[in-house]
Write a structure and sequence with these properties.
The protein is α+β, with helices and mostly antiparallel strands. The protein is built from 8 helices and 24 strands.
Length: 400
């Protein structure tokens, strides 16, 4: 006679078997777990194979064989792109069940046959779609020209699986209304997707950060953007051109000098970086930031107004504007348009010190100027922020 315990065990086994049948080979992810820290990590390929094998419920040997096939499939992708551009519409690997899907604009079985190696026997599935990959790539370039001309803040990609160009935006209504297509309708090869935020790298830079090289250090000013959408960071032109920038708590990033202007009204330069740039400035030494959403022109910055600053040396300071018609010595043919801020609150180290050059002067959420000089009585000077546009042909970035 079966005990209650044995009956329970049979039922448990039956449930597990049914789960495997209806859920496929990835059931392990729900019923089993692995501590990857215990896997052999002396060889990175073996380590990866162990994780992959466990995830797809296959042997480590089969996992390694699939890894080797990736090189074969990569060569196939390249060969078809080069030799069959009018027909080939892309390929991808599927892992459960394992296969290679190849898309063509006609029945491509005979076209791709000469390119297939014996390792791929039984793994190929061919599908027919409307447009070749080459055609989609050209359509994407055409779209990007329109997007850049409109200044749309979107990201685009080609979805090979759906044979479409995807446009991702945080405002789908605005994007749809601004983009113009033939017959005023979105073509079937374009899909506009609304997303919570656009892709972002893992590191972000902004104003108020340290910019440095072994010989000197100064401060980043405001984030800037070209009319074409390229983002960068501004600072003072009298500072070095070859520098790194230190994201708060992050890894130093290489900057790429773009241009500078150190004549007449200007002491400003700008750099691009390989990470995200946003419209923030640091305002406190603990990394606290605030957003910049507007620019206050020099003509609307009244004498007597308070303005705040952040620099790598003195941190947060603030003072009153006491003069708007100053010249500074480092600027060639300098015109009297630089603004002086008095140390009215009596900071022991003054409004500015060496290392603060390039840092942001601001008030509320508005950009007022780029720090350029200190004086002997504790005051500081800045170039008005609206001169960044006329001096460098880039705008202060006022959106995330």
């Amino acid at each position: 006679m079966k005990t209650k315990k044995s009956i329970f065990n049979y039922i448990t086994i039956l449930i597990l078997l049914l789960t495997v049948i209806f859920s496929g080979s990835t059931v392990w992810a729900q019923t089993d777990s692995v501590d990857i820290s215990t896997l052999d990590h002396s060889d990175p390929t073996i380590y990866a194979a162990n994780i992959y094998a466990h995830y797809y419920n296959i042997s480590k040997t089969e996992a390694l064989e699939r890894f080797k096939l990736q090189n074969v499939i990569g060569k196939l992708d390249n060969d078809l792109s080069i030799n069959e551009p009018e027909t080939f519409a892309g390929l991808w690997i599927e892992h459960s069940p394992y296969k290679v899907v190849i898309q063509c604009t006609t029945d491509g079985s005979n076209i791709i046959k000469p390119y297939l190696s014996s390792e791929l026997s039984g793994l190929i599935e061919v599908r027919i779609v409307k447009r070749s990959l080459k055609e989609l790539q050209q359509l994407q370039l055409d779209l990007l020209k329109q997007i850049n001309a409109l200044g749309l803040d979107v990201s685009t990609s080609i979805n090979v699986k759906t044979n479409q160009i995807e446009i991702r935006t945080v405002n789908i209504d605005q994007t749809e209304s601004m983009l113009s297509f033939d017959k005023f309708s979105i073509p079937d090869y374009v899909k506009i997707i609304e997303v919570p935020s656009l892709p972002t790298p893992c590191t972000t830079v902004y104003g108020g950060l340290t910019m440095w090289n072994p010989n000197s250090a100064f401060t980043s000013g405001f984030a800037v953007v070209t009319y074409g959408g390229t983002r960068g960071i501004a600072s003072a032109a009298h500072c070095d051109n070859t520098v790194w920038i230190n994201p708060y708590g992050g890894t130093p990033q290489t900057t790429h000098f773009q241009s500078e202007n150190k004549t007449y009204y200007y002491d400003v330069q700008w750099h691009t970086v390989d990470v995200n740039v946003t419209n923030l400035i640091q305002y406190f030494s603990d990394g606290s930031t605030t957003s910049i959403t507007s620019v206050t022109p020099r003509d609307t910055q009244p004498i007597g107004a308070y303005v705040a600053k952040y620099g790598r040396t003195t941190g947060f300071t603030m003072g009153q504007i006491d003069s708007k018609n100053n010249t500074v010595p480092q600027v060639q043919y300098c015109m009297p348009t630089f603004i002086h801020v008095a140390n009215t609150l009596g900071y022991p180290n003054g409004i500015c010190q060496e290392g603060d050059s390039g840092g942001p002067f601001y008030w509320d959420h508005s950009a007022w100027g780029i720090c350029t000089n200190k004086d002997y009585i504790g005051g500081g000077f800045y170039m008005a922020a609206n001169y960044i546009l006329s001096g460098l042909n880039v705008n202060v970035l006022t959106t995330p």
